[in-house]
Amino acid sequence: MGKEPGTTKFQVDFRRHLRDQNISGNLVHLLCEIAEASKYVINAVRTGDLGVAGTSNLYGEEQLALDVLSDRIMRKRLMHSGVVCNIASEEMDEIFQVTSNPQGMFSVAYDPLDGSSLVDVNLAVGTIVGIYQGADMLQPGRRMVGAVYILYGPRVSLVYSVGKGVYEFTMNQLMEFTLTREDIRMKPSGNIYAPGGLRKKYTPENERYLRYLEDKGAKLRYSGGFVPDINQILLKGNGIFLYPALTDTPQGKLRLLFELNPMAYLVEQAGGAATDGTTPILDLTPGGYDQRSPVYIGCRDDVEKAREFLNGNDGTA
Ligand code: FDP
Fold first, then answer.
1. Where along this sequence does the record place binding of substrate (predicted)?
2. pLDDT tens-digit profile of 37-83?
């Protein structure tokens, strides 16, 4: 809080903003703990060891020392928050139970360092978090009580929603998050596209959809990091990100609990949409913590168009 040197604008910090949102004190506390943890993660990203950890995660992916460290930072903070009963992380093999009494507690699913293959080339990465009331995380994402991501780019920003709109905070020189955008809204349709996965493995329906986007003049904007790619689309209010089913991986790549649900929650809150091609992402019931899903996420009309192409209703069949 207070005035930033050189400006006359009153800075609204994260905690103060949350207190005005009419949400429980426990949820305010949890969100502030997540924001605090991100300060240590960015410090690790900026100065930590870029090498491999010599371990692999649940998906058989080699873990970087930074993946392991970021995971530890997040987990410790959540464990000691006093308001979390269960923790699931993309980097852990099983659920970490903090307490067996979920009364008044939250469960948290997170990806501590998404896009970590970009760390060694100094591109933007992020942390993604989904918050559930009680002990159960294997329920449709629509039942989440909040979602957050933190983007570690040239600046550090935090975007969150607790179902009352989407807000962006940016870290200042004192490492405080101050409000930079309120009530972020997406346009009905856009002209940016971010297509994940190898294109030669796209199915004919997906290939036709991509051609449709290109023919309508959409610009390619794909960094290979889910957080910065979604951040661009969400904050510009413009465009679509897709990671479709590939011919050899029908479930695509991205994980429902750790990546898709939190982003779908934020994008829907901003007036956008997210589907797996048939069903809204937030209505999918996860079969397990490691469930993946194809995804089309962004401006409402562009997502609807993807659904039409995938279901053969695009007029070309
Ligand atoms: P990464 O493997 O670098 O961690 O799910 C992780 C992710 O990156 C996303 O951040 C990104 O959108 C996607 O994978 C990129 O996958 P492709 O390289 O197959 O496009």
1. 114-117, 222, 253
2. 999 999 999 987 777 767 777 777 777 788 899 999 999 999 999 99
